[in-house]
Amino acid sequence: MIDEATFRRVSDAALEALKQSLIVAEDASGAFETEDNNGVMNILFEDGSSKFVLTPNTPVRQIWISALSTSFKLDWSEASASFVLPRTGEDLKTLTERLLREHLGDDGIQLG
After folding, report:
1. Is the pLDDT of residue 1 over 90?
2. Which residues have a Cβ under 8 Å from the Cβ of 96 and sit 6 or more positions away?
3. Are 96 and 18 in contact (CB under 8 A)?
4. 3-state secondary structure of 44
5. CA–CA separation, 15 vs 85, rounded Å?
6. Element containing residue 92 per DSSP (H, E)
7. Which of 20, 31, 78, 101 reaches 20 to 30 Å from 52, CA-CA?
8. Is residue 46's pLDDT more than 90?
9. pLDDT of amino acid 85
10. Is residue 77 part of a domain?
11. Is 99 within a domain?
C-alpha cells in the first residue's frame, strides 16, 4: 500500500485530470455538470435523475465512485500509474466514461 502523502498527491492529480476531462465533456453534452466540493466530486445530471459521487478514501488508499446504485473502489496501480478497478481493469477515466455513457444512454460521451 502506498503511503498517505503519496496517495494524497496521486489521488488529487487523478481527480483533477478527470475533472478537466469532465468539464470538456459537459460542455459538449449539456446533460451533466461537475461540482468539486472540498475534495468530493459530484456529477449532477440535468434531468435531476441522480448524481455520481467520487471521493478519495485515504485510510484504504482508494478512490470510490458511487454511481448507478453501486460502489466502485479503485486501487492505485504502480504498473499503470493510475487508479484501477480490479474487477475490470478499467482506469478512473475509462470507468467514469463508461458509467456516464450507461446512465445517459449516450455512446458519444468521451473523456479525452
Report:
1. no
2. 18, 22, 52, 54, 65, 111
3. yes
4. strand
5. 15
6. helix 92-104
7. 78
8. no
9. 98
10. yes
11. yes
CATH number at residue 30: 3.30.920.10
Which residues on neighbouring strands pair with residue 52, listed in sequence order? 43
Residue 93 in any domain: the answer is yes
Structurally, how many domains does the chain consist of?
Answer: 1
User: What stretches of 1-112 adopt beta strand conformation (E)?
Assistant: 32-37, 40-45, 51-57, 62-67, 70-77, 82-84
- The answer to whether the CB of 45 falls within 8 A of the CB of 103 is yes
> Residue 83 class from Cβ within 10 Å (0-12 exposed, 13-18 middle, 19+ buried)?
buried
Determine if the pTM surpasses 0.90.
Answer: yes
The closest of 11, 111, 112 to 61, measured between CA atoms, is 11
At 71, list the grid cell: 460502489
pLDDT at 4 over 80: yes
Q: Name the residue range of residue 34's domain.
A: 4-104
